[in-house]
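A note from the maintainers: we've had questions about how concatenated examples are separated. There is no special marker in the raw files; a new sequence line simply starts the next protein. For clarity in this README we add a label.
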Amino acid sequence: MAENPVKQVHSLMSSRRSEPVVRTERRGDMRRPCDDVVVHLIDDDGTMIPFESFDLNHGGMFLRSDLLMYPGDEVVLQLEVPGAPAPLLVIGKVVHVGVDENGEASGMGVSFWSLTSTERAILRNCISPGSRTARCA
């Protein structure tokens, strides 16, 4: 049986205490559409809620959804990136919520807070022009 995702996150954070973590609060690079990245938000009880990835870069992503968190909320995401050896468990912060032209919820921007240099490289590879591991524009 697979380990509970919440326990995985606690274990992940404990194991990274001595590893440098890059924190990104402002978008430094352009995001690119990426439709091959599977995203699940992991709720406090371990429930995995699927989200549609609209675009991403190595510092964050925009998730399309009617279910929105509040700006400032911390989120735990599992990202299945083509070519990665295992799903990435990422802690991030909701930095903004978007609405469409009708004022309806359209999604939220999340800034990643817990990427290691290896995970950041996996995302850079996914979104780099000419990447064969994901359909990124």
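[label: protein 2]
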Amino acid sequence: MSADEALARSLEAFERELAAAAPGGAEGAQGRVAEPGALGVDVSAVPVFEEGEVGSGDAGAVPREDAEIAARAEEGYEPPPEAAGGGAVAAAAPTYPPPPDVGDGRGDDLVLRQIREAALHEPDPELRERLWEEYRRLKGSR
């Protein structure tokens, strides 16, 4: 017996148990035991896991973040060694104090927090200043 057949039989047995536990016992409102699929589950239409991914409209689609990483890699970008662990700033990364005019960051949304965090850990002074300029621009428009 294949896995699909085993699943279908299991669902049929489960539906029978549900029908028996329903008000009125095993006899439904129409005087018979609920048929497989009577509860609205068409097991023949349910894709097997290998046929599609849960929650994805297109199983072949590449997540946006992966596409951005691939595009940056094609341009020659290589992440710093401390970032290879997975997105979080390494604990040993130096921090640079924020300019006095940007405040303490309370009330920042996700994008502002990310720009602020990037600026606090950016070793290149020119790029760090550009990040702070972007932070100021976005903070002023919100």
